[in-house]
Every structure is written in C-alpha cells, then in structure tokens.
Amino acid sequence: MFLGLVLSACSVVEPAESSEINEVEYNEEDKIVKDIEEVDMQININVNDHDLTATLVDNSSTAALIELLKEDDIVIDMRDYGSMEKVGMFPQNLPTNDEQISTDAGDLILYQGNAFVIYYDTNSWSFTRLGKINDVSKTELINILGSGNVRATLSLK
Q1: Nearest-5° Cα angle at 34, 29 to 36
Q2: With 90 as the cut, is the pLDDT of residue 15 above it?
Q3: Residue 104 above 90 pLDDT?
Q4: Mean pLDDT (the chain, rounded)
Q5: Half-sphere exposure of residue 149, counting CA atoms within 13 Å on the CB side?
Q6: Residue 21, SS3?
Q7: Cβ contacts of residue 63 below 8 Å, gap of 6+?
Q8: d(CA 110, CA 98)
Q9: For residues 106 and 143, is the Cβ–Cβ distance under 8 A?
Q10: Residues 41-68: pLDDT tens digits?
Q11: Alpha-carbon separation of residue 141 from 27, 47, 51, 92, 145 (angstroms)
C-alpha cells in the first residue's frame, strides 16, 4: 500500500501554466546574440595587403565584436610577441569567455578583454577564443604577417 501511495504521488504532477513556461525575458546581451544570428559568422582581416577570411565562434565576445564592426571597420596596430603571435589593442574592452585552450596557427584570440591576437604558432593559456582564419597554413600565415609591426583591418564580410 505504501508503494502504491508513493507511486501515485509521483505520477500526479500539475502542469505549470503555459505562460510561465513560455515567458522569456530578453536583455541587451540576448539582443546582441539574436543580431549575430542574422550576420554571417565571418569577418575579413586585411594584413599587409592580404585579405583573409576568418570564421568566428558563437559567444558574447564575438557578438560584441560584430556590433563594433557594424559601426565601422576596426584598425589594429599589431606587434610580435613571444615568437608565436601578433597582438594589438581593441578600441574598447569586449566581454570575455576565458577557458584553458591550446592555440594553433590562425587562431584569433581575445586576451584580457582588450587585446586582439592572431596566433602563428602554438600556445596554451586561459583565453577567449574568437575564431580562426580560414584556408591558410602556418607557413603562409607567417609569410603574410611578416616580421615586425603590422596594421590589421577587421571588417564584416
């Protein structure tokens, strides 16, 4: 009898009103994520007169980046760092989504919310992944980026 009482108690679940289940509140970040779905997840990067295309990952960092790029192209002066990357500063901080990752040539990374990094070699650290440059080998990327300082222009595809 006890088992029957327990089973019947478990099976009687009152459904919540549909308005409670379907009610969704949207904030500004939700709006950005919705807007990013309407934009192709690719950007252009021009470095040393080479046009590169990169595919972005889907996170709040890339959503904020796309919102900036909708306003205008972003020009970033970049320098070599650690013989593995070119790094330059965004005009403003972006939200971070840091996680322990290993990079490879062509990876686009956000570091500390304001540094844009193009990796041309490997590294492992806690970063925010932004995306990856399409269809370029490590050797090609090193040749495109060259040695010394470069200016990168990011734009929407």
Answers
A1: 95
A2: no
A3: yes
A4: 82
A5: 5
A6: helix
A7: 29, 32, 33, 35, 36
A8: 9
A9: no
A10: 999 999 999 999 999 999 999 999 999 9
A11: 39, 10, 11, 26, 6
